[in-house]
Amino acid sequence: MKYFLTILICCSGYLGSSAENGRTDSTEIIRLYDRCLDFAEDKVDSLYYYANFIKTESAKINFSRGELFFHRLSGIALEMQEKFDKALEHYLITLTISKKLNNYHYISAAYTDIAITYGTIKQLDKAKENFLISLEYHKKTKSISGLVSCLSNLGTVYSRLDDLDSAAYYLNESLRIGKPYDSLIDLNTTYNNLGNIYFKTKKYDQAVEHFRYGLQLDSSHIYLPAKWIAHLNLGYVFVELNQLDSSLFHINKAEQLANQLQSKSKLADIYALKASLEAKRGDYRRAYDYQKKWYEYDTASIRLETYNTILELQEKYNINEQIAENKLLQETIKTESFKNRTFIIYIIGLAIIIIVILSAFIYKRKANKELQLNNELMAKKNEQLAILNRQKNDLIGMVSHDLKTPFISIGMWSHILDSQSDNLSNDQQTAIKKILQSCGYGQQLIQRILDIEKNTGADNLHLEEIALLPMAHQVVESFKQKLSEKELEVNIQVVPENLKMISDVQIITRILENLLSNAIKFSYPKGKIELKFEETAGMIEIIVHDHGVGIPPDALPLLFDKHANKSTTGTNGEDGNGFGLTIVKRLVDELGGAITCQSTPENGTSFIIVIRK
Predict the structure, then answer these.
(1) Which 8-state DSSP code applies to residue 338?
(2) What percent of the chain has pLDDT over 70?
(3) Chain-centre distance of CA 512, in angstroms?
């Protein structure tokens, strides 16, 4: 798969000056610079021309930013030609000038350019380091487009480092911040890079969806490299899906764009993909030929001297930065030396103050020692309590596990008897059904005790994208028998219908099962239950509402307390142990969400859960 690192376009605004005496004014220079940042590889000669034009015209009008514009455009042109050491030399000069101007926009752009260069030559740790610095400057500029681009680039680097959790975090943050401005900001790169994560985890259908969406977003733009990356990624995923005709279609599209852009590195990626395609077909001779072409063109085969030059340039820049800081420190020392005479006058007074402070310190230290002894004693007590708590949890786990076996045995033999119920009397058949029912309640009780006592923690969450409407139908379907017994109707409402969230599907399902079981238990026969999902300000709101018996006001504060006795009989005499809502509260807490309850006796109950999307 191929990832796309975006060059940050730093729009500078206009100064409002006008052209005089045939000279180009600063406003025209800024406009020309911004337009050049949109050039692709096929315009590399124009980039060189306009970079020198901007430098010359800026000198005529003494425009201070002209030198910065010249070096950045030159660096971009050199990078397009895969002259990475020369490109980095210009980017480091750009960074130096940006810092002198103390302009956060230009500083963040310079760090982004440096990071992209390292990413291109596969020095990913260096790329990550510079992107993280760039992100801090973006936060200071409060530029939405720059922040979205930098977050997307960071997600890309983490994905290439196989840190998929961090990658998903930064890419989803990029989408979250950028979506309200999607008419102004190009998000296709972020969608493409999210597609790469799904590809890596072999979720190919979701990968295709994101790649196609990225291509669709880009269809209204002229930026050819973005179209190239979308077609290339679709080619890769269709190879994995064994849809080789579809893969070849996108390979040809990508190859046309690479030739149009006159980019060797992009052709190299196409040859790598063609090698995969031919290997899938079983034509290993052609696959080998394409593999040789890929190695010939690939930027990974950059000469060692070039990479060493890049490292030397970075080191020289760091040394120069240190020298500049040392000079500033020396100037500060000289200035401070003139203040020393005045400072001596205060020494005697300061000595008196120190004596007073030392006296107070000695007294305070004595008090602190006593406090420390008390804290150590309390820490030992807490440690003992923690050991006892672990032992208690272990005992509960072992006892619950051992209790499962007889219940399973009882259930198995009861099912055998039930299957031969035609030979039994009505009383015997009723007795078997009661045994099966009691067995089921016993197994549920054991499972709920285990759910309450275990603590999964955020490290054990298995995050994935969940389509909420199909999941809700699956949960309701699992209660089909219970709903039928009480003639209850469940109304599912998802707004919008294609609403999705990133979470642990097992935990979300467990939450819904407990709340729906509760709603069924306390609903009157032939009643209705509402199950609603809605997106609000980047959060998912889940509401489970029944029209049943309701909850007394004095019981609401203890609703989620596992130590309170909340066991209540249902409208059809259903048994309960009061643990279900305690489990729900724990699971919601593990997802970082919140749960509340609204209820009035005889007017039903609503449970409202809010979880980050």
Answers:
(1) T
(2) 72
(3) 25
Cα dihedral: 356, 358, 363, 369 (round 10): 160
Q: How far apart are CA 34 and CA 27, in angstroms?
A: 11
For the stretch 4-43, what's the b/e string if a residue is b when 16 or more beta carbons lie within 10 angstroms of its beta carbon?
bbbbbebebeeeeeeeeeeebbbebbbebbbebbebbbeb
C-alpha–C-alpha distance, residues 84 and 310, integer Å: 8
62 DSSP 8-state letter = T
Q: Which helix (H) or strand (E) holds 534?
A: strand 528-536
C-beta pairs of 27-33 under 8 Å, 24+ apart in sequence: 29/54, 29/57, 29/58, 29/63, 29/65, 29/66, 29/69, 30/65, 33/69, 33/73
DSSP codes joined into one string, 101-162: HT-HHHHHHHHHHHHHHHHHTT-HHHHHHHHHHHHHHHHHHT-HHHHHHHHHHHHHHHHHTT
With a CB cutoff of 8 Å and minimum separation 6, the contacts of 187 are: 148, 174, 175, 178, 179, 214, 217
Instruction: For the chain, give the number of residues.
Output: 613
Q: Report CA-CA distances (Å) from 213 to 191, 254, 258, 495.
A: 7, 16, 21, 21
Q: How do the residues of the chain divide into helix, strand and coil, expressed in percent and rounded to 5?
A: 70, 10, 20
C-alpha–C-alpha distance, residues 408 and 477, integer Å: 24
Say if CB 603 and CB 550 are below 8 A apart.
yes
Residue 264's CB: how many other CB atoms inside 10 A?
15
Yes or no: say if 531 and 544 are a contact pair by the CB < 8 Å rule. yes
Cis peptide before 225 (omega within 30 of 0): no
Strands 605-612 and 594-599: antiparallel
Q: How many CA atoms, within 13 angstroms, populate the side-chain half-sphere of residue 234?
A: 27
Strand partners, 598: 606
Tokens found for residue 353 = 């103050």
587-611 pLDDT, tens digit each: 999 888 999 999 988 889 999 999 9
The hierarchical CATH code for the domain 201-289 is 1.25.40.10
The full 3-state SS of 410-459, as one line of letters, equals HHHHHHHHHHCHHHCCHHHHHHHHHHHHHHHHHHHHHHHHHHHHCCCCHH
Tell me yes or no: is domain 1-185 CATH 3.40.50.360.
no
Can you tell me the distance from the alpha carbon of 165 to that of 155, in angstroms, rounded to the nearest whole number? 9
- Residue 283 is predicted with a pLDDT of 82
Q: Would you say 458 and 590 are in contact if contact means Cβ atoms under 8 Å apart?
A: yes
By three-state DSSP, how is residue 241 classified?
coil
Cα separation, 273 vs 232, whole angstroms: 8
Please check whether residue 73 is in contact with residue 51, taking contact to mean a CB–CB distance below 8 angstroms. yes
What's the CATH number for 458-612? 3.30.565.10
Per-residue confidence band for 143, with pLDDT thresholds at 50, 70 and 90: confident
Buried b (16+ CB within 10 A) or exposed e, 442-462: bbbbbebbbbbbeeeeeeebe
Which residue, chain included where needed, has tokens 């001596």?
A: 344
Please name the amino acid found at residue 595: I
Residue 522: C-alpha distances to residues 472, 483, 485, 568, 585 (Å) = 20, 12, 13, 9, 19
Beta bridge partners of 595: 609
Distance between CA atoms of residues 612 and 291, nearest Å: 45
**Mind listing the pLDDT tens digit for each residue in 198-238?**
888 888 888 888 888 767 765 545 467 778 888 888 888 89
